[in-house]
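Appendix B. One record, verbatim.
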Amino acid sequence: MVRWMCLLLAAAGGLLAAPGLEVISTAEICGGCHRGIHEAWKRSAHAAAMESRLFQDALALAERDFGEQARPVCLPCHSPLGVHLRDFSLKQKVSWEGVTCDWCHSVRDVRFQGPNPAPVVEFSLVKTGPMKGARAVVHGTQYAEVHTNSGICAPCHQYRTAAGLDLLTTYQEWRMSSYGRQRRHCQSCHMARVVGDVVDPRVQAGGGAQINLHEMPGSRSVNQLNQALRMVLAAARKGEHVDVEIELANVGAGHSMPTGSPMRELILEVAADAREGEDFTETRRYRRLVADQQDKPLELEHEAFFRAGKVVSDNRLAAGERRLERFLFPVPVGVPVQITARLSYYYSPLARADSEKRVVFRTISRWVQ
């Protein structure tokens, strides 16, 4: 039916709304014509932003502790259309679609004048995007420069708390890095350009365009993590000890690692497993620790968003930073030992399964005689 209506409208030469296409439509309606893009988006964290069980748990805790303040703070980035529609009870389907099609493609610009970046959104049957000269038969199209740069990411990846602390600083980290100075935008890593069909060829001919991949892989993607971080292990015997050096380098992320929520951590575990005698393990963590204005450290995400006022410490790896970590293990001469370095990304303290909390993405081993 969608295909038939699109072809009919094309033949008529009119810019009309197909049945089901409203000023604000669900992602499934958009996917009727933009099938490949829709399928990729459904695999993204944007699509799961509202339905994520981790977010649902955090939202429930925020409502328990902060009452009616919770949803106006939490939902603008997890259900932006729900907020626009004043559907704070989340009764409409589109409110559960997370960062959905008709939100991003209604953004005209982003303002940076206030404490937090704010999107300029205009809902109509004219959809914005990064392609100049794009034409559609079911709705209008408009090029918006903000879709080509990191600004469109800022409203949800830069956040200042009511206490005045910049809690989410991903956009700021990018802007201050070499990536920002060189204008290498977020899309270059998280929305790579691929050959694809903007519109399903069964609906409209003329595929093979360069489009942004809407899967938008992020922090829990093993591929993204491996591209971002390099780890080099060197180990040598020094008398009755084994000296281990680990070089960590943020070579592929235009922001600190990890970025986003201060609950997120990189964890480096180095183990010395001897064939005989005692085994040893040391752990080092890289994160940003925040506290409220009374200096109480905050370890739960919802508390940080409402109460954080200070940064206690920050030992994350900045974009482009290289760091050398040293470990010394007492292993007697003549005892072979296997040194193993494991790098993992810790995502959320609320997750119940360890597989949801942690992603192990790099492991290196060496034997030392």
